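We recall that each integer encodes one residue's backbone shape. We quote one record:
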Amino acid sequence: MLDDSLLRTVEETIERFPVAHRDTILKIWNDWLDTNPQAPFYASWSDFSSQHDDQEALYTETRV
């Protein structure tokens, strides 16, 4: 599991996102945490987040 310092850092970063996208990003983040991710975290996050990403919409307003 991720340590508390890293969790706080990520959550503080998400809080600085534009309001229009913040809740969606925070929900995906919390959903990932609910999976009890294991190291390497970058691989775990990449696999998880790719399920929520629309690869067809590379340059939509949401992605940019």
